Amino acid sequence: MSETTGAAPAAQHSEAAPRLSRLLLTGAAGGLGKVLRERLQPMARVIRLSDVAEMAPAAGPHEEVAPCNLADKKAVDALVAGCDAIVHLGGVSVERPFEEILEANIRGVFHVYEAARRHGVKRIVFASSNHVIGFYKQSEHIDAHAARRPDGYYGLSKSFGEDMAQFYYDRYGIETVSIRIGSSFPEPANRRMMSTWLSYRDLTTLIEKSLFTPGVKHTVVYGASANRDVWWDNSAAAHLGFAPQDSSEVFRDKVEAQPPVAPTDPNAIYQGGAFTAQGPFGD
Ligand code: NAI
Ligand code: 15L
Prior knowledge:
Helix 2 crosses helix 3 (98-119) and helix 3 (98-119) runs parallel beside helix 4 (153-172). This protein has one domain: NAD(P)-binding Rossmann-like Domain (Rossmann fold, 3-Layer(aba) Sandwich), CATH 3.40.50. It has helices at 31-39, 73-80, 98-119, 153-172, 191-196, 200-212, 252-256, 266-269; strands at 20-26, 44-50, 63-65, 85-88, 123-129, 142-143, 175-181, 218-223, 232-233. Helices cover 31% and strands 16% of the residues. It has a 7-stranded parallel beta sheet with strand order 3-2-1-4-5-7-8, with helices on both faces. A two-stranded parallel ribbon has the order 6-9. By secondary structure, the chain is α/β, with parallel strands linked by helices. It is globular, with a radius of gyration of 18 Å. The structure holds 1,4-dihydronicotinamide adenine dinucleotide and D-galactaro-1,5-lactone (15L). The site of D-galactaro-1,5-lactone has 8 residues, from helix 5. D-galactaro-1,5-lactone binds next to helix 5.
Protein backbone atom coordinates (compact mmCIF):
# COMPACT_ATOMS: atom_id res chain seq x y z
CA MET A 1 0.00 0.00 0.00
CA SER A 2 1.30 3.43 -0.85
CA GLU A 3 1.60 6.28 1.57
CA THR A 4 0.06 9.29 -0.10
CA THR A 5 0.15 12.01 2.53
CA GLY A 6 2.79 13.71 4.63
CA ALA A 7 0.87 13.01 7.82
CA ALA A 8 2.94 11.09 10.33
CA PRO A 9 1.44 8.13 12.13
CA ALA A 10 1.28 8.49 15.89
CA ALA A 11 4.73 7.62 17.22
CA GLN A 12 4.75 5.25 20.12
CA HIS A 13 7.32 4.13 22.59
CA SER A 14 6.94 0.38 22.37
CA GLU A 15 7.23 -2.08 25.24
CA ALA A 16 10.84 -2.71 24.23
CA ALA A 17 13.31 -0.06 25.42
CA PRO A 18 14.40 2.32 22.64
CA ARG A 19 17.74 1.29 21.20
CA LEU A 20 19.35 4.72 21.65
CA SER A 21 19.55 6.86 24.76
CA ARG A 22 19.84 10.27 23.11
CA LEU A 23 19.63 10.83 19.34
CA LEU A 24 20.69 14.20 17.93
CA LEU A 25 18.58 15.44 15.01
CA THR A 26 20.08 18.50 13.31
CA GLY A 27 17.92 20.53 10.93
CA ALA A 28 14.97 19.51 13.11
CA ALA A 29 12.94 22.65 12.27
CA GLY A 30 13.17 21.97 8.52
CA GLY A 31 10.79 20.17 6.20
CA LEU A 32 12.16 16.68 6.84
CA GLY A 33 13.08 17.42 10.44
CA LYS A 34 9.46 18.24 11.29
CA VAL A 35 8.35 14.91 9.85
CA LEU A 36 11.15 12.81 11.27
CA ARG A 37 11.13 14.09 14.83
CA GLU A 38 7.93 12.17 15.46
CA ARG A 39 8.76 9.16 13.33
CA LEU A 40 12.16 8.60 14.94
CA GLN A 41 10.78 8.80 18.46
CA PRO A 42 10.43 5.05 19.05
CA MET A 43 14.15 4.65 18.32
CA ALA A 44 15.50 6.80 21.17
CA ARG A 45 14.67 7.56 24.78
CA VAL A 46 15.24 11.27 24.03
CA ILE A 47 15.60 13.10 20.73
CA ARG A 48 17.68 16.27 20.92
CA LEU A 49 16.23 18.65 18.33
CA SER A 50 18.58 21.26 16.96
CA ASP A 51 18.34 24.03 14.39
CA VAL A 52 19.32 27.65 13.90
CA ALA A 53 15.66 28.41 13.19
CA GLU A 54 12.90 28.49 15.78
CA MET A 55 11.63 25.03 16.72
CA ALA A 56 7.93 24.63 16.10
CA PRO A 57 6.09 22.89 17.55
CA ALA A 58 7.98 23.15 20.84
CA ALA A 59 9.50 20.07 22.46
CA GLY A 60 7.11 17.31 23.40
CA PRO A 61 7.64 14.25 25.60
CA HIS A 62 10.92 12.47 24.82
CA GLU A 63 12.26 15.60 23.08
CA GLU A 64 14.62 18.40 24.07
CA VAL A 65 15.47 21.52 22.05
CA ALA A 66 19.08 22.68 21.64
CA PRO A 67 19.37 25.69 19.31
CA CYS A 68 22.71 25.79 17.48
CA ASN A 69 24.39 27.31 14.45
CA LEU A 70 26.36 24.57 12.73
CA ALA A 71 28.99 27.13 11.71
CA ASP A 72 29.93 27.60 15.40
CA LYS A 73 32.44 24.89 16.31
CA LYS A 74 32.21 25.27 20.08
CA ALA A 75 28.44 25.29 20.01
CA VAL A 76 28.36 22.11 17.92
CA ASP A 77 30.79 20.44 20.30
CA ALA A 78 28.44 21.14 23.20
CA LEU A 79 25.45 20.06 21.14
CA VAL A 80 26.85 16.60 20.46
CA ALA A 81 27.93 15.88 24.06
CA GLY A 82 25.77 13.17 25.60
CA CYS A 83 24.35 11.82 22.30
CA ASP A 84 24.90 8.29 21.07
CA ALA A 85 23.98 8.80 17.40
CA ILE A 86 23.35 11.69 15.01
CA VAL A 87 20.96 12.17 12.12
CA HIS A 88 22.50 15.15 10.36
CA LEU A 89 19.92 17.00 8.28
CA GLY A 90 20.96 20.58 9.10
CA GLY A 91 22.33 22.97 6.51
CA VAL A 92 21.47 24.83 3.34
CA SER A 93 19.29 22.47 1.31
CA VAL A 94 19.23 24.20 -2.08
CA GLU A 95 21.72 25.81 -4.44
CA ARG A 96 23.05 29.07 -2.97
CA PRO A 97 26.17 31.28 -3.21
CA PHE A 98 29.31 29.44 -2.12
CA GLU A 99 29.84 31.50 1.04
CA GLU A 100 26.48 30.42 2.50
CA ILE A 101 27.14 26.78 1.66
CA LEU A 102 30.63 27.04 3.14
CA GLU A 103 29.39 28.05 6.58
CA ALA A 104 26.40 25.78 7.07
CA ASN A 105 27.35 22.71 5.06
CA ILE A 106 31.12 22.52 4.78
CA ARG A 107 32.23 23.97 8.10
CA GLY A 108 29.05 22.53 9.61
CA VAL A 109 29.73 18.93 8.63
CA PHE A 110 33.34 19.23 9.84
CA HIS A 111 32.11 20.49 13.19
CA VAL A 112 29.66 17.60 13.51
CA TYR A 113 32.35 14.97 12.81
CA GLU A 114 34.91 16.62 15.07
CA ALA A 115 32.38 16.74 17.89
CA ALA A 116 31.44 13.10 17.24
CA ARG A 117 35.11 12.13 17.50
CA ARG A 118 35.61 14.09 20.72
CA HIS A 119 32.47 12.70 22.36
CA GLY A 120 32.70 9.10 21.18
CA VAL A 121 29.67 9.06 18.87
CA LYS A 122 30.07 6.05 16.59
CA ARG A 123 27.12 6.29 14.18
CA ILE A 124 26.01 9.16 11.94
CA VAL A 125 23.35 9.29 9.27
CA PHE A 126 24.27 12.01 6.80
CA ALA A 127 21.59 13.60 4.61
CA SER A 128 23.49 13.68 1.35
CA SER A 129 21.71 14.42 -1.90
CA ASN A 130 21.16 13.32 -5.47
CA HIS A 131 22.88 16.59 -6.40
CA VAL A 132 26.20 14.82 -5.71
CA ILE A 133 25.57 13.03 -9.02
CA GLY A 134 23.26 15.61 -10.60
CA PHE A 135 25.11 15.94 -13.90
CA TYR A 136 24.40 12.35 -14.94
CA LYS A 137 21.77 12.18 -17.65
CA GLN A 138 18.37 10.76 -16.84
CA SER A 139 19.08 8.08 -19.45
CA GLU A 140 21.99 6.75 -17.33
CA HIS A 141 21.76 4.18 -14.55
CA ILE A 142 24.37 4.44 -11.84
CA ASP A 143 25.31 2.83 -8.57
CA ALA A 144 27.14 4.17 -5.52
CA HIS A 145 30.53 3.55 -7.16
CA ALA A 146 29.87 5.92 -10.08
CA ALA A 147 32.19 8.92 -10.07
CA ARG A 148 30.49 11.90 -8.48
CA ARG A 149 29.28 14.68 -10.77
CA PRO A 150 28.03 17.45 -8.45
CA ASP A 151 25.68 19.94 -10.06
CA GLY A 152 26.53 23.04 -8.00
CA TYR A 153 28.04 24.32 -4.76
CA TYR A 154 25.30 22.56 -2.81
CA GLY A 155 26.08 19.24 -4.49
CA LEU A 156 29.78 19.86 -3.92
CA SER A 157 29.15 20.38 -0.22
CA LYS A 158 27.33 17.05 0.00
CA SER A 159 30.19 15.41 -1.88
CA PHE A 160 32.56 16.92 0.70
CA GLY A 161 30.33 15.58 3.47
CA GLU A 162 30.57 12.07 2.03
CA ASP A 163 34.38 12.38 1.93
CA MET A 164 34.33 13.62 5.52
CA ALA A 165 32.32 10.54 6.48
CA GLN A 166 34.79 8.21 4.72
CA PHE A 167 37.77 9.92 6.37
CA TYR A 168 36.27 9.76 9.86
CA TYR A 169 35.54 6.07 9.35
CA ASP A 170 39.04 5.26 8.08
CA ARG A 171 40.80 7.35 10.70
CA TYR A 172 38.52 7.05 13.75
CA GLY A 173 36.07 4.20 13.09
CA ILE A 174 33.00 6.46 13.14
CA GLU A 175 30.42 4.74 10.92
CA THR A 176 28.15 6.69 8.58
CA VAL A 177 25.40 5.99 6.13
CA SER A 178 25.28 8.79 3.57
CA ILE A 179 21.79 8.81 2.10
CA ARG A 180 21.70 10.45 -1.33
CA ILE A 181 18.12 11.58 -0.90
CA GLY A 182 16.20 12.03 -4.13
CA SER A 183 13.10 14.18 -3.54
CA SER A 184 11.44 13.59 -0.18
CA PHE A 185 8.15 15.45 -0.10
CA PRO A 186 4.53 14.41 0.48
CA GLU A 187 4.24 13.71 -3.25
CA PRO A 188 6.28 14.16 -6.44
CA ALA A 189 5.87 17.74 -7.71
CA ASN A 190 6.90 17.17 -11.33
CA ARG A 191 7.92 14.56 -13.92
CA ARG A 192 11.52 14.38 -12.75
CA MET A 193 10.38 13.56 -9.23
CA MET A 194 8.46 10.56 -10.56
CA SER A 195 11.95 8.99 -10.61
CA THR A 196 13.51 10.67 -7.58
CA TRP A 197 10.60 10.62 -5.11
CA LEU A 198 11.19 9.15 -1.65
CA SER A 199 8.14 8.79 0.57
CA TYR A 200 8.41 9.80 4.19
CA ARG A 201 7.69 6.21 5.19
CA ASP A 202 10.56 4.89 3.05
CA LEU A 203 12.86 7.64 4.32
CA THR A 204 12.06 6.69 7.91
CA THR A 205 12.77 3.02 7.21
CA LEU A 206 16.03 3.92 5.52
CA ILE A 207 17.13 6.04 8.46
CA GLU A 208 16.26 3.24 10.87
CA LYS A 209 18.30 0.76 8.82
CA SER A 210 21.13 3.32 8.69
CA LEU A 211 21.14 3.76 12.45
CA PHE A 212 20.96 0.12 13.48
CA THR A 213 22.52 -2.12 10.81
CA PRO A 214 25.82 -3.36 12.26
CA GLY A 215 29.10 -2.81 10.44
CA VAL A 216 28.07 -0.23 7.83
CA LYS A 217 31.56 1.39 7.75
CA HIS A 218 30.79 4.25 5.31
CA THR A 219 27.87 3.22 3.14
CA VAL A 220 26.42 5.34 0.36
CA VAL A 221 22.78 4.60 -0.43
CA TYR A 222 20.35 6.25 -2.81
CA GLY A 223 17.13 7.39 -1.19
CA ALA A 224 14.30 6.69 -3.63
CA SER A 225 11.05 4.80 -3.30
CA ALA A 226 10.22 1.83 -5.52
CA ASN A 227 9.42 4.12 -8.45
CA ARG A 228 8.88 2.70 -11.94
CA ASP A 229 11.74 4.56 -13.62
CA VAL A 230 14.34 4.83 -10.89
CA TRP A 231 17.90 5.69 -12.10
CA TRP A 232 19.82 4.33 -9.12
CA ASP A 233 21.10 0.87 -8.25
CA ASN A 234 21.46 0.21 -4.53
CA SER A 235 23.25 -3.15 -4.77
CA ALA A 236 26.35 -1.65 -3.12
CA ALA A 237 24.19 -0.95 -0.05
CA ALA A 238 22.38 -4.31 -0.02
CA HIS A 239 23.65 -5.00 3.52
CA LEU A 240 21.23 -2.32 4.78
CA GLY A 241 18.30 -4.48 3.66
CA PHE A 242 16.38 -1.41 2.49
CA ALA A 243 13.28 -2.46 0.53
CA PRO A 244 11.15 0.61 -0.26
CA GLN A 245 7.39 0.09 0.11
CA ASP A 246 6.00 3.09 -1.77
CA SER A 247 6.02 4.18 -5.41
CA SER A 248 5.41 7.46 -7.23
CA GLU A 249 3.18 5.53 -9.66
CA VAL A 250 0.03 6.44 -7.70
CA PHE A 251 0.69 10.09 -8.61
CA ARG A 252 1.38 9.52 -12.33
CA ASP A 253 -1.94 10.78 -13.70
CA LYS A 254 -1.76 13.93 -11.60
CA VAL A 255 1.86 14.68 -12.56
CA GLU A 256 1.36 13.91 -16.24
CA ALA A 257 -1.58 16.32 -16.35
CA GLN A 258 1.02 19.08 -15.96
CA PRO A 259 2.18 20.92 -19.13
CA PRO A 260 4.94 18.99 -20.92
CA VAL A 261 8.57 19.87 -20.25
CA ALA A 262 10.67 20.88 -23.29
CA PRO A 263 13.29 18.25 -24.18
CA THR A 264 15.97 20.96 -23.86
CA ASP A 265 14.92 21.80 -20.28
CA PRO A 266 17.51 20.60 -17.67
CA ASN A 267 14.57 19.07 -15.80
CA ALA A 268 14.17 16.66 -18.71
CA ILE A 269 17.89 15.98 -19.23
CA TYR A 270 19.81 15.73 -15.99
CA GLN A 271 19.23 13.71 -12.85
CA GLY A 272 19.77 16.90 -10.83
CA GLY A 273 17.19 18.78 -12.93
CA ALA A 274 17.08 22.55 -12.54
CA PHE A 275 19.97 22.61 -10.04
CA THR A 276 22.35 22.04 -12.99
CA ALA A 277 21.46 25.46 -14.39
CA GLN A 278 21.50 27.64 -11.27
CA GLY A 279 24.13 30.34 -10.80
CA PRO A 280 26.60 31.83 -11.27
CA PHE A 281 25.89 34.11 -8.33
CA GLY A 282 27.06 37.66 -7.76
CA ASP A 283 28.32 38.55 -11.26
P1 NAI B 1 15.21 22.31 4.99
O1 NAI B 1 15.89 23.44 4.31
O2 NAI B 1 13.73 22.38 5.14
O3 NAI B 1 15.87 22.04 6.41
C1 NAI B 1 17.20 22.30 6.70
C2 NAI B 1 17.29 22.89 8.08
O4 NAI B 1 18.65 23.19 8.36
C3 NAI B 1 16.50 24.19 8.22
O5 NAI B 1 15.55 24.10 9.27
C4 NAI B 1 17.54 25.24 8.51
O6 NAI B 1 17.13 26.24 9.42
C5 NAI B 1 18.67 24.40 9.08
N1 NAI B 1 19.96 25.09 8.93
C6 NAI B 1 20.42 25.78 7.85
N2 NAI B 1 21.59 26.36 8.12
C7 NAI B 1 21.89 26.03 9.41
C8 NAI B 1 22.97 26.34 10.26
N3 NAI B 1 23.99 27.12 9.87
N4 NAI B 1 22.93 25.86 11.51
C9 NAI B 1 21.90 25.08 11.94
N5 NAI B 1 20.86 24.76 11.18
C10 NAI B 1 20.85 25.22 9.92
O7 NAI B 1 15.61 20.99 4.15
P2 NAI B 1 14.92 19.57 4.18
O8 NAI B 1 14.16 19.39 2.94
O9 NAI B 1 14.29 19.33 5.48
O10 NAI B 1 16.21 18.63 4.05
C11 NAI B 1 16.89 18.15 5.19
C12 NAI B 1 18.26 17.65 4.75
O11 NAI B 1 18.11 16.66 3.74
C13 NAI B 1 19.15 18.74 4.15
O12 NAI B 1 20.49 18.50 4.54
C14 NAI B 1 19.01 18.53 2.66
O13 NAI B 1 20.17 18.98 1.99
C15 NAI B 1 18.83 17.03 2.58
N6 NAI B 1 18.07 16.63 1.41
C16 NAI B 1 16.73 16.84 1.34
C17 NAI B 1 16.02 16.45 0.22
C18 NAI B 1 14.54 16.57 0.16
O14 NAI B 1 13.98 16.11 -0.85
N7 NAI B 1 13.84 17.13 1.14
C19 NAI B 1 16.71 15.87 -0.94
C20 NAI B 1 18.13 15.72 -0.76
C21 NAI B 1 18.78 16.07 0.38
C1 15L C 1 17.65 18.35 -2.68
O1 15L C 1 18.80 18.06 -2.38
C2 15L C 1 16.93 19.43 -1.99
O2 15L C 1 17.30 19.53 -0.63
C3 15L C 1 15.42 19.31 -2.09
O3 15L C 1 14.83 20.53 -1.70
C4 15L C 1 15.00 18.97 -3.51
O4 15L C 1 15.36 20.01 -4.37
C5 15L C 1 15.71 17.69 -3.95
O5 15L C 1 17.11 17.77 -3.77
C6 15L C 1 15.45 17.34 -5.41
O6 15L C 1 16.42 17.14 -6.13
O7 15L C 1 14.28 17.24 -5.78
